[in-house]
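Quick look at the format.
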Amino acid sequence: MVQVIRTFRPDVIVTRFSGTPRDGHGHHQASALLAKDAFEAAADPARFPDRGRPWKTRRLLWNGFSFSRAQEEELAKMPGGLRVELGAFDPLLGYSYGEVAGISRSQHRSQAMGSAERRGSVTNYLFPVAGEPARRDWLEGIDLSWRRYPGGEAVEQALAEADRAFSLRHPERALPALAAAYDRIAALNHADRLEEAAEALALAAGLWLDVSAGAAEASPGATVRLTMHAVSRLASGVVVERAGILGMPGAPVLVEAALALAPNQAATRTADLRIPDSAAWTQPFWLVRPPRGTLYDTAGEQTGRAEGAPALTAEFVLRVADTRFTIRRPVRHRYVDAARGELARPFVVVPPVSTRIPAPSMLFPDARPRPVTVEARATVAAAEAVLRLRVPEGWRAEPSEVRFTAKEPGEQRAFVFAVTPGAASGELAVEGAHEVMRIEYDHIPPQTLQPRAAARAVRADVRMSARRIGYVMGAGDEVPAALRQMGAEVELLDGAALVHGDLARFDAIVTGVRAWNNRADLRAAHQRLKEYAHGGGTVVVQYNVMDGGPFGRETGALKNLGLLPVRIGRDRVTVEDSPVRLLDPRHPLLTTPNRIEERDFDGWVQERGLYFASEWDPGYEAPLEMSDPGEAPLRGAILAARTGAGLYIITPLSFFRQLPAGVPGAYRLFANLVSGGKPAQ
């Protein structure tokens, strides 16, 4: 955080949270506490001397947040608040800033944060936390113009002239003044603002500058065709003095002699690039080095960036009149999708053969050998690889190696090794091999990750009486694979199965992460699940966010997703190694078929659990207790209600994190829950 502050050099820092229990869980509180520490440390030359020149931010503010009109009114009465109007309408955007905020928050899709677009006045308050005080305006005493810098008056004058010359229909008329501003900024040596000034010139001229790779990916030794397109769509007199490729030795120069761009006439050039044998595979910068425990090990200069440098960068040196400026663009692969039109994705360097072990962790519940599948895929033609599965000490894999050959790119095969476990858990890995993973959603750029082809091998005695399990999938849910590794037959239940299917054939029905939030068919089947439990089945409900709507606090009643009334709160246990108390060590869910001890909570990752119940009917049994340091104990980690011959369980414990991470105790405890505390046959 200190490095980011010293790099960005802000005048004001605003925290979202206050650093008090008002914020909710510990992750929220920690962000504000760290912000205050970093605010002070960034100005101290004795602290983190290797992380940039000290920078004293003028003031630190807390943006008082509210979840209701009543809380908004409460904030308005708090002393020292600086009023900020966020509901102003921008006629150029066609939106108010309140609307833009709603659109923005609704992009936070991984957290299901769709938000209303508020129109009309929206008042927020900023409360001083540290630094210089402010009496009326949060930017009080801060010069926002170029006059704050020695020699900046000349830049301010040029930008004022550009503003006067600017026309929405003819932005190119501002080019001379923008060029003058660029030259004056260059003289002041403000590199970050110089890049912005260059982009302003490109926008005013309507410049389109692009280099497209003929393929989305290539391996070391392969040759890729690069195609440049340069168009000045509004301005005359724009000259490309040079266009080249950065990022790899031997990269071509596409334009060597001055190339004048005729208005709205595309200039194209092509060249071939051989990917060097030594070229690094494309990775997010935080994954280039192996993690240190659960922490990413990043190169210092990358800290604070959203993404690392692209594999290839096109650099254009241009001239407008007497002003020379540089524009850089990532080299991407452009293609046409029949349904979505022209699309682009980053160009990446990948290994000639990628491999993967499909499961992030593999459970060996006893000493018998089990099959381990390794998948191999060719990324280039005529690819070859010898695959060897490295196992923990004392384990054995057969065969010792397999050979993969492919004629065409995209060919793939699956190989099966028989792995006999030893006494201790460890890592399975394909020697020297990496997986090529692609993350693709409409609302983010495509991402390519290339982790080692490895999986955690877990040797733990896990017994389970449930053999047939119906599973209602949640969001980003990997729990069904873990249940299969424990020996269960898992069937994913759709809406028809929930409404009409024979649920009695299952030993247990498990609902996935946030399934009750995301699936109306599950909410509609609530009564059927209660009847199923009454008839002798076990229902296990994993964590959900109950926040508004027919199942949330908005109703003011104990609406619930349980057998008996329960209200889901916002409490978490965020310290993953916080102590756990077994309130009833003899409870069947803690003894059968696996005896759960405190050591079963060792090695948990990221957190214990989230969105613990805040109120529940006394008919629920609660055998566990845990809390973050210094906070009140939470007893809602497991809530179990008996009905007829069955059991209905609600648990906010983060099994969805622990099971893919291969935490032995989490396997054992989850096996007890789905077994309903019944002995294994």
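Next, a different chain entirely:
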Amino acid sequence: MMKIKNPVLPGFHADPSMIRVGDTYYIANSTFEWFPGVRLHESKDLVHWKLLSSPLSTITLLDMKGNPSSGGIWAPDLSFADGKFWLVYTDVKVTEGAFKDMTNYLTTAEKITGPWSEPVRLNGVGFDASLFHDDDGRKYLVQQTWDHREYRHPFHGITLTEFNPVTMKMKPQTARIIYAGTEVRLVEGPHLYKIKDYYYLFAAQGGTVWTHQEVVARSRSLEAEDFITEPGRPFITNFDTPDFALQKQGHGSLVETPAGEWYYASLVGRPWHHANESDWDPRGWCTLGRETSIQQVTWDEQGWPRVVGGTGGQLEVDAPKDAILTESPIDNSRYDDFSQMSLDMEWSTLRIPFTEKMGHCGNGELQLIGHGSLASTMDTSLIASRWQAFSFDAETKVSFAPWSYQQMAGLTNFYNDKHWSWIFVTFDEDRKTRVIEIAENNRGNYTSYLRDKAVVISKDVETVWFKTLVRKSYYQYAYSFDGNNWSLIDVKLDAAVLSDDYVLQSYGGFFTGAFVGLAAVDYAGYDTAATFGYFSYKELAEG
């Protein structure tokens, strides 16, 4: 029998919304400030997953310019009803402080690959909105409810509001709180299901950290506060399993197979520890972000769902008995020679789409036009893809002719605008030559590591090769002038800096994961361009 090996979607794939249409399963994941919005995969066996094109690929559907880091797309909800796909998504504009300014939108498509309709504005009551299609034809928006008042808890409960599918408008007069959560608080991520005689509400609690959990409540009606919480332990949590490889499981969604088996897709984190740290405190650093796991579910005699193997879940889970083998690569290693005239689906950009203003690709090269720094939330010329393994090598080659230290281009490991590093070509005005430098932004504090020892690039050298060697707890950079003979720079950077857990220590945006990518900067404003010849990402076995 095939086995589901967790996580099924490694690297930053948070807040999974999983559905089945016929014999095919789909998962939609959060993308936050990364463009295009919403990550989609499909599978017929729940084991192997194929990446699909992202639905929010235009500024009409998603305009995030200026969004704060970890703003943007929070917890999309994918559903299928009335012969089409429905996608509800939240664009969060404020992440810090008393307010969470946001807008919930709806778009639909007859095919999962689109085209997707013009967005319908729903409301801004709260994030993590999902659409419930009742069996009587009525539809409801179910969402976390935000309360800015300092004397109230900001997570005000789960609100249910009827939606009119004819007018495509909300019916705000129908809004009511149907569930307040438990004493754990921070109730969010709701998904509602009608199963036999009950409405089952699945909701996350405890914050998306080590205390994260999913609870289930049920009711025979959709009236306010009629929902009763599942007795005993939470549906799923890893708070009390600190030694288990999977942590943070909670926020997710439920699906039934054609044969009547049940599975639950959840976010999950996989922490590692520095050699001198306790395995319990700190619990670790999840540089791959919040990933997606799948657990099998059974129903007890009282009609409550239970995770097979216990509330902590399992690393390996039996695949559905009626699974149809889905072809997929052995790992996520890849090579991009930029021969295509558009970026492949593994690449993401920050907040804005890849357009001619940022650069172009094709015919064996990628050109990036330098704009703002990597600390900018506006115009950043960066393309990046997820870290999907704890250890990997990534490399590229770049041609760049800067004449100012304000112009830079190279290879970056990136978490957000305050946490990143890179190896890059720039100009040293004292020595009047191009040089190779390594720099890091850590909690917004910028450090140049080479300074007067920056590597000089001879005038006759047109192309420089860069490599990053990521080894779980640390990573380094290397350079070459011929692509064969490499010089490893003696600067070891702490990989923990690129984790949700580290960022959480200093401020509230902590929802994504580490990326590796290519970038060009010209904050002098002269649009200096860099040309990249290829990108290679090779995953390494854990030793």
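Residues 299 and 305 are 4 Å apart (CA to CA).

See the schema section for token definitions.
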